[in-house]
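ok here's chitinase:
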Amino acid sequence: LCYVEEIDKSNAYCDTSNTQYPCVPGKFYYGRGPIQLTGNGNYGAAGQAIGFDGLNSPETVANDPMTNVHSVVNQGFGATIQRINGALECGGKQPDKVQARIGYYTDYCNKFGVSPGENLSC
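and the structure:
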């Protein structure tokens, strides 16, 4: 959570075998944003899931303040869900998706041997 863009930008992370989310000439899919999203497949899928053109505008991940969670990380995982996808999932709109996110998050925390903290749900 320290860098908005990957320091070493020499790898374009273009998987030419990915025909569902093909690379756009001149675009680079190196790590950006709070989770350092990488690869054309991940940019394409993330863009489709949350509503931005990940393949043509991968820089959106680093530039769009609406998807920036840095300012709420210390408020718990629920605050990050709210910041990223709250309009679509929180407030009882899609509780199954919220619970799945919490499950993934707590599973990773357990694997790393860290506490997931308070405020897990939006």
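+1. The radius of gyration is 15 Å.
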